[in-house]
## 1
Amino acid sequence: MYQLIALPSFTDNYIWLLEHTPTATCLVVDPGTAEPVKAWLSQHPKVQLTNILITHHHPDHIGGISELKQLTGAQVYGPSSEKIPARDIALHGGEQLTPLHGLTCQVLAVPGHTLGHIAYLISDGAQAPWLFCGDSLFSGGCGRLFEGTPEQMHHSLTQLSALPDNTLVCCAHEYTASNLRFAAAVEPDNPALAQRIVEVQRLRAANLPTLPSTIALERATNPFLRSDSAQIRKKIDEWQASKNQPKSSNHNAFALLRQWKNEF
Ligand SMILES: [Zn+2]
């Protein structure tokens, strides 16, 4: 009844489109440009765009809003503390929405990449839920800390990590292959990670998206959800020793991991 479509945009972004086939309505998430959405809508002339969901204020997530709003009259949802063009409904996390027929949507505050960053957990009560998480949790990684602290991001990711195993992780960039290169350096003996790298290579060779991922897969392979792992701790210590930095305490393993990834 619901169909999820990844519309590639720019060099490595995805604009997610969720369609409810019986009512011929759809929503899009983070249209950084209007073109791919307009192209899809012109190929599906009966389908109406009713909702535009925005996770954060970066230009590659908001650039297409005004044009799509003007064209379709769709309602625009976005974080209350960030500048979002044509926003109708301001959100700060904790709200419950009903974006399309039969769907419930939980808004989650996930600061770190930006301070107002939110994610949308959407469910029809039957299929696996969809998590639209922008640039907070990535497949195999996480967003850079442009505005928030490592503690904020760690808290946000811990919250996402606790979602049901089958939750479909619909993040906004095709970064999986490069993220997994870092993950392999950080946790070389993780068998689930080794298996995933093979699968991701297969998908990319066929020019297919590596998304959506699942929360279970992220929990098993994403180093930013695994900073408690003994091997990751040991590798962080080795990395610090190679830079002549003092050894880490448990408290800042996540922050060090993010710093290591920035320099990787
Ligand atoms: Zn961003």
## 2
Amino acid sequence: MISDISTYIGTHKQDLYTLMETLVLIQSYSRNKAGVDRVGQYIAGIMERIGFSCEIVPQQDLGNHVIARSPAAAKDPKGQTLITGHMDTVFPEDSTFNWYKADDTKCYGPGVADMKGGLVVGIYALQALVDTGHLKDLPITFVFNSDEEIGSLSSRELIAKEAKHARLAYVLEAGGMRNDIVTGRKGNLSISLEITGKAGHAAFAGKDKASAILELAHKTLALEALNQPEKGISANVGTITGGIGPNTVPDRAEASVDFRFLSFEDAEGVQQRLDEIINTPTVPGTSTRVQPVSGRPPMPQTAGNMAVYSKIETLAHKLGTPVLSELRQGVSDANIIAKQGIPVIDGLGPVGAKDHSEDEFILKDSLWERTILFANILTEI
Ligand SMILES: [Zn+2]
């Protein structure tokens, strides 16, 4: 089985690069609805040609999501394999990073790593299975979402819904430079704080001075005390603003804060302490409002994830493609899937780095190597 899939992908290498170049050259910043929609239409065209049925999930301001189902998954999604990949990139429409190039060892362009290269891996792995007769009755659903880079607010529910009746899931974000595959990710919570006090002339302020900045200083210390690097918990007060001048008691202060954690338990612990800190003023006369900005649950390296990883490792070994298990710091849609309690493996896209910068690249050969690996994962695991 391994050999005819490898041969198929081996003879279609140029097609993989052509598809990646085509997708990269369609501008698809998260807020460029027309561009993301074009990527979705293009992909839906391919998926339908290989026999998948596509559902377009329309969005008002953001790009439409595309859900592609294999014939077996369209009939009955129970026990399906879920694949997800996002079509949006972080580069605004007027960015000068709007080109694609490749040399002998690398490919460069917006999204080659994050994550149009990963979409190519998924699409071509499926095409290889279809064309070599290995797709058979495999129930596979591939969600192409439009808003991962801005928090997946409009797609997280549909991803969670597909995950609910999935047996396991794969996310095609880029592999790490040591050939890493992602078996766990930290979760995050990003919030903004708004503290209200009472304004007055600094010279006449008495004991009851309700300075919003003073309260924010106390809160900053309390929040930073949540840091526990040895447990993988981080808290960072990243910005502060407030006040209008030295001679005025500030009646407003604002801050933005980021938390990271490894387990569901720690996520709850952080939330609990945060609530206490918010609801316990140190400076009388001040009050604090908290606004969640974004967040994704943690993706712990569960026994389920590690069992799937070890099967991938065995397959990769047979194929001569080295892999390594990675606990990645940043978040992705794999975090949303992990919350549903099914095994999920991420970082199965091509090996690359420098994403979110104009130096973004992938290692050229890893595009077809990872496509062969992924096609085998889908049939063997
Ligand atoms: Zn990404």
